[in-house]
């Protein structure tokens, strides 16, 4: 009964000055809103990193030229920073613990035509084990085989996007398409992988035999990347370091002078994204903490002003028998009520901001239960800590002096 009465009296006092109440809650609104956005983005980033790792492959390594530029080699001679098929063979022969390795060459936005329908798509010239190493099977038809590579066959496997753009719902198996100036027969359709969080369409590709692409379509000797699948009994990071050392040794390049090859592993990919995410999160949490601190100081100072203005009311209540504890509890309840209002408004502001970020940017966002738990803890903690001094001052007022 007493607690309910004190709460009602506190709410009456707060509602009598709505502007002051809003200013008291404003710091909490901003702090909780910022905390909600931070934790939503953090949850979204963790989910995206997990998805990237899953798409990349649990035990995978990808080797690409850093920029395809010339670097100064050991001994003063220039060395070309391009991957060759011989590099893939050397990795296969000299590095232990590999379940599979596949070299490929890619060209982007290549013109493709089927009858009167045209589109542009990426074209990958791949080795026969590309489907296994990239964990990318066909949804229909047949994959690229070793026979296709050995015989320079003019066959191809369509990604889901060019399949729909060129053939719609029709079955493309057995039909011919024109890639550049070379005719290819469609022998399969890749399983769909969808669009990444950054908007990249992974299905916009056509794969052809490696030899056919290198000799008949691209007319080049260097390759775009090498993909490796590592056995579960071997350390992924150690294998990646061994591959990198082998490549620099083969190309006679000192890695201390210039980095010309980039070796991605599943672990390095996760660490890279997690490192960026953690740095940004720490900065934003620091700003969020500053917001709570400022909000708490504003709350305390406004409550001190309120105590000074309500001396007569406090003195009268104490003269009529209100205990010191009653005055203390009433002011603490007022602070908790104000921050409770700020908590709800902050959650609404944070979720609205997170929705806007997800809707109009490429920043990953996902719901986070932790934002509601921490928001409640921080808002109530700020209310109790920063309102304690004003509440004590009100409770310790002498009733005679206060009424006077």
UniProtKB/TrEMBL annotation:
Q: Where is the MacB-like periplasmic core domain?
A: 21-246
* Keywords assigned: Cell membrane, Membrane, Transmembrane, Transmembrane helix
Ranges that cross the membrane: 21-43, 283-307, 328-357, 369-388
Q: What is its main location?
A: membrane
Q: Where in the cell is it found?
A: Cell membrane
Q: Which GO terms describe its molecular function?
A: transmembrane transporter activity
Where would I find the ABC3 transporter permease C-terminal domain in this sequence?
289-399
Topology in the lipid bilayer is annotated as:
Multi-pass membrane protein
Which InterPro entries does this UniProt record tie to the protein? ABC3_permease_C, MacB_PCD, Macrolide_Exporter_MacB
Instruction: Return the GO cellular component terms, semicolon-separated.
Output: plasma membrane
Domain of life of the source = Bacteria
| Protein name, entry field | Multidrug ABC transporter substrate-binding protein
Naturally occurring in which organism (per UniProt): Desulfosarcina ovata subsp. sediminis
Lineage summary: Bacteria, Pseudomonadati, Thermodesulfobacteriota, Desulfobacteria, Desulfobacterales
């Amino acid at each position: 009964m007493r607690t309910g009465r004190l709460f009602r009296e506190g709410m009456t006092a707060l509602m009598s000055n709505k502007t002051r109440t809003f200013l008291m809650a404003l710091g909490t609104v901003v702090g909780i809103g910022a905390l909600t956005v931070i934790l939503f983005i953090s949850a979204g980033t963790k989910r995206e990193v997990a998805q990237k790792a899953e798409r990349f492959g649990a035990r995978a390594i990808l080797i690409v030229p850093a920029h395809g530029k010339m670097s100064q080699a050991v001994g003063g001679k220039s060395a070309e920073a391009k991957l060759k098929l011989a590099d893939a063979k050397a990795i296969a022969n000299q590095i232990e613990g590999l379940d599979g390795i596949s070299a490929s060459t890619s060209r982007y936005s290549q013109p493709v035509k089927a009858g009167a329908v045209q589109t542009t798509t990426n074209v990958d010239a791949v080795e026969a084990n590309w489907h296994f190493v990239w964990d990318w099977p066909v949804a229909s038809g047949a994959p690229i085989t070793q026979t296709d590579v050995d015989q320079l066959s003019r066959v191809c496997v369509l990604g889901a996007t060019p399949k729909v753009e060129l053939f719609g719902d029709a079955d493309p198996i057995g039909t011919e398409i024109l890639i550049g100036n070379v005719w290819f027969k469609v022998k399969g359709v890749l399983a769909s992988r969808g669009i990444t969080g950054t908007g990249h369409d992974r299905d916009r590709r056509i794969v052809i035999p490696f030899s056919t692409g290198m000799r008949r379509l691209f007319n080049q000797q260097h390759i775009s990347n090498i993909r490796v699948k590592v056995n579960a009994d071997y350390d992924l990071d150690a294998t990646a370091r061994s591959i990198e050392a082998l490549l620099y040794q083969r190309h006679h390049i000192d890695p201390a002078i210039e980095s010309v090859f980039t070796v991605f592993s599943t672990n390095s990919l996760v660490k890279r994204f997690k490192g960026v995410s953690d740095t940004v999160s720490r900065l934003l949490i620091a700003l969020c903490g500053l917001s709570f601190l400022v909000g708490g100081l504003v709350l305390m100072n406004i409550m001190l002003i309120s105590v000074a203005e309500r001396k007569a009311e406090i003195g009268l209540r104490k003269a009529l028998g209100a205990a010191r504890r009653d005055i203390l509890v009433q002011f603490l309840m007022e602070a908790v009520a104000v921050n409770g209002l700020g908590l709800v408004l902050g959650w609404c502001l944070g979720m609205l901001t997170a929705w806007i970020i997800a809707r109009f940017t490429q920043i990953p966002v996902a719901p986070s239960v932790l934002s509601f738990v921490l928001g409640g803890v921080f808002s109530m903690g700020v209310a109790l800590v920063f309102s304690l001094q004003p509440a004590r001052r009100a409770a310790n007022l002498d009733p005679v002096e206060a009424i006077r």
